[in-house]
Amino acid sequence: MTRQQFGFLAGFLLVAVWALGGIGAAAAAALAGLVGWLLVRVLDGDVTAPGFADRADRRR
Question: Which CA distances in Å does 3 have to 7, 8, 9, 10, 58?
């Protein structure tokens, strides 16, 4: 599955949840997806706590 196809599917499913369950259900689904994405990034080693600290220090 390409990134474009995945993006279309994710958007379609989010709108379907919104239509069936309302804006609260859609927001909850989007938040759960974001948490899942972040969890996978952490488990893969792409995101680390020191990496967040380095980014915060560079912005000051």
Answer: 6, 9, 10, 10, 30
